[in-house]
TrEMBL record:
Keywords: Aminopeptidase, Hydrolase, Protease. CDD domains: Peptidase_M17. This is Probable cytosol aminopeptidase. GO terms for cellular component: cytoplasm. Belongs to the peptidase M17 family. Coiled coil: none annotated. One of its GO terms (molecular function) is metalloaminopeptidase activity. GO terms for biological process: proteolysis. Signal peptide: none annotated. It comes from the Bacteria. It comes from Euzebya pacifica.
Amino acid sequence: MVLGSLGTPDFVVHGITLEQRPALTGWQARLAAVDGFDAQLGSYSSTLSSDGSHVDALVGLGSLDLLDVERVRIVASSIAGRGAAGITIDTDLAAVAGPAIGRAHALGAVAEGLRDRLGRGRAYGLVGSGGDEDVKVLDRAALVAEAAELGRRLVDAPPNVINPLTLAEVASTIAAREGLDIEIIGPDQLEAESMGGLLAIGKGSDVGPRLVGLHHRPRGARGHVALVGKGITFDSGGLSLKDPEGIVDMKLDMAGAAAVLAAMSVLPRLGVGVAVSAWLPLAENMPGASAARVGDVVTTRNGTTIEIRNTDFEGRVVMADALARASEDRPDLLVDLATLTHACTIALGDDIAGVLGNDAAAVGTVVAAADLAGEAVWELPLARRYSGRLSSTVADVSNHPGNATGRAITAALFLERFVGEGVPWAHLDLVGPAWRPGPDGGATGFGVRTLLRLLEDVALG
């Protein structure tokens, strides 16, 4: 990928907005008329150039008023999916989108979208770009795309390949390569450190649970952010077994941990100047002989007891110990990512993650970072009027709300009990956008871009 034209490309792809469509002239107008090209988002038409040297193409960007980082990245990705291996493509997408969303944002979105994930050896020229600042944008985009791809690959991996042990090994490899400090807490040490929630959920599997801590400690760090990512590498539901349809794709339940690990994998190379501690509670939720039973009461890291009323509400139980441990370092900001509730998808749809938190500034920081990163999020209320739904007669709190409504809120209320007093905290519930079902679906890497933008913004103050 280069700034400027490749010179003699095989394809030249022109971005066209709805507002530009009526004003097209020459071959562009003729092609649009013949093919019915309407400039809607992702629409595409092509023709051989008049001199036969290359293919000219039009790709729709939709309405200028609706154009944002996410839409530009989607269109660029659609271009990357077309054509054969080894071809060369010039595109002016960044130049067209720049006036609407900002030059750097447009260039970064196009560069991320064009990343050759299939290794087809293609080359791209970004027409209308050049200069030292654009080089920096392109370098950053390459790292962000690399991290997002890692997040996808980790979640897409078969659950017999990625489990708590092997994911911890991946984290160890990344830490050694990137110069991160790492600690891996196994089952025996988890018990010694009173992490009864993670132990309870993980003990039904032959592969015991792990808590992985990764630490980015740059010299002269400006602040400290803690991240927690839910890492259920496969969720059968435990003894509260999922039905056959519900258990399909349950390798996705580690998407939060994958996003956090993927973000950490490029932090040093991005030069992020904030200290970051990442905690990954890893477990398989399986119905083995030692599995947690419905009615068990477990004691967590901060001393809070949990009644397990439903073993398929396991994510919050493993997150409890990780949030409590992360809080002990008194970070300036604590952010967790979890594929936690189907209710959030019912409320916001498949594309939007819910954000809840105990601090308006913390939530606002996450929402702003997600907007700049081109990932859709929406704030939901942390409505404490629902706290009573988590009450238990035998423990401090129940892991099941006993009510079919408001479950994204009650899940966040549960997590809040394990966040240290005075620690600003935001929670992302990302079941919908983290995964696309069906034969052509899979992991999306959602959350990686938001985390990287967030950490860069915090470092800049």
